[in-house]
Write a structure and sequence with these properties.
- By secondary structure, the chain is mostly helical.
- It has two domains: about 110 residues, Rna Polymerase Sigma Factor, Chain: A (Orthogonal Bundle); about 80 residues, Arc Repressor Mutant, subunit A, CATH 1.10.10.
- GO terms for molecular function: DNA binding; sigma factor activity.
- Keywords: Sigma factor, Transcription, Transcription regulation.
């Protein structure tokens, strides 16, 4: 995998070759995200194009200290899809089960890097997420994966906004503590 941080830096300087290399390196994952969230190839194509236009214009806003380049790119793509869903008056997929099913055959067969990454981190994250209370898991999923605001969750569930924020905060703290323990052992 090419150095995405370097490609983003050159893209921020309007380097078209770097942007083309960035696109080549990330297009399969971006397409999978768009297709999973939008469930319509035509809408996914539109969202993917919009996402890469945003990436071209916003590459300079990437800050390495705040996370990996890949995570930042995936977030731009995901947020573009969520914006498109809202514009269409549709809700994101409500079940995480739908996110587990690969839609792109290339995603069904992970490469060696993905297999290594999964073997190192998947078990710990899965164990820590599974240790949360069901309500915490649900609210984290709705907030960080599905893109719902705390206010949206409060109006949907009938829970107080402060309660929603408290449950999510405690869940994030519990995950951090659990993942921290996993790293040290």
């Amino acid at each position: 995998m090419p150095d995405l941080e370097k490609l983003l830096a050159y893209t921020a300087l309007a380097d078209q070759q770097a942007f083309a290399a960035l696109y080549q390196a990330t297009q399969r994952r971006a397409w999978a995200i768009c297709l999973r969230l939008l469930r319509d190839p035509s809408a996914a194509e539109d969202a993917m194009q919009d996402a890469y236009v945003k990436l071209w214009h916003q590459a300079a806003s990437y800050r390495p200290a705040q996370g990996t380049a890949e995570a930042w790119l995936n977030t731009v793509v995901r947020n573009t899809c969520l914006d498109k869903l809202r514009a269409l008056g549709r809700e994101p997929v409500e079940s995480m089960d739908a996110m587990d099913t690969p839609l792109d055959p290339a995603d069904a067969a992970p490469g060696p890097e993905q297999l290594l990454e999964r073997s190192m981190s998947h078990g710990t994250l899965e164990r820590c997420f599974g240790a949360l209370k069901p309500q915490q898991r649900e609210l984290l999923t709705q907030t960080y994966v599905m893109g719902h605001s705390h206010r949206e969750l409060a109006s949907r569930s009938g829970m107080a906004l402060g309660t929603i924020k408290t449950v999510i905060r405690r869940a994030v703290i519990a995950l951090r503590e659990c993942l921290g323990e996993g790293v040290a052992s």
